[in-house]
Amino acid sequence: YDKCLSLEDVKVNKPLHFSNVRGAAAKRIGLMSEKEKHDLRESINRGRSILETEDQLNMYLYSYGNMHEKKLGYAFKKMKRLFFLPRQKDIDIIDYGCGQGIASICFKDYLESTGRELSIENITLIEPSRIALDRASKLCSLFYPKSNVIEINKDFDSLTTSDLRQNNRCTLHLLSNITDLDFDINAF
Fold first, then answer.
1. How open is the CA angle 100-49-59, to the nearest 5 degrees?
2. Preceding peptide of 15 cis, ω within 30°
3. Distances in Å between the alpha carbon of 164 and those of 60, 90, 125, 139, 176?
4. How far apart are CA 188 and CA 184, in angstroms?
């Protein structure tokens, strides 16, 4: 079987949703033997390893995608209404430790499910795994076709203030998968 999750796999169902992405990954995982699945689960170390292969990306989505989607949906519902005022049309997103872009994709799902409209000018994806960052970039370009997607292939210790653009737009900072990392947000 072809291990690579193609954008065509995701675009099968319209409109696009995170469930399309996870479903395509689950389909790939479903083609594996139980031993292959077990070995892959072990290799991602409960989601803490820096992912290096397409199979690991797919296993991560398969194993943890639903959990991330639910926690992000809950968090987005708790956002202050002020963020969605009519004058607040253009925003940027910075997705720290973005992995495959799950938080950014789920935010798009949230906007659609609530009927809220925002113009996302820039999406900055920060991720140490090159292969995960590549997938996140492709998926965010698909989900946000009018947005500028910026890739930063670094870990937190390597980030500098010049990596993060400063502008007058409101910025949504997504930190959905960095609970086990030690860094000082005040340094930025």
1. 55
2. yes
3. 27, 17, 10, 21, 18
4. 8
Q: What is the pTM of this model?
A: 0.87
Give me the amino acid identity at 5.
L
Rg (CA), the chain: 16
* Contacts of 148 by beta carbon, 8 Å cutoff, 6+ apart: 121, 122, 123
pLDDT digits (tens, 9 = 90+) for 55-86: 999 999 999 999 999 999 999 998 877 677 66
Judge whether residue 3 has pLDDT over 80.
no
Q: CA-to-CA distance for 15 and 161, rounded, in angstroms?
A: 37
At a CB cut-off of 8 Å and minimum separation 6, what does 51 contact? Answer: 44, 57, 60, 99, 129, 131, 132
Tell me the CA end-to-end span of the chain in Å, nearest whole number: 44
| Helices (H), ranges, the chain | 7-10, 18-30, 34-43, 54-77, 102-114, 130-143
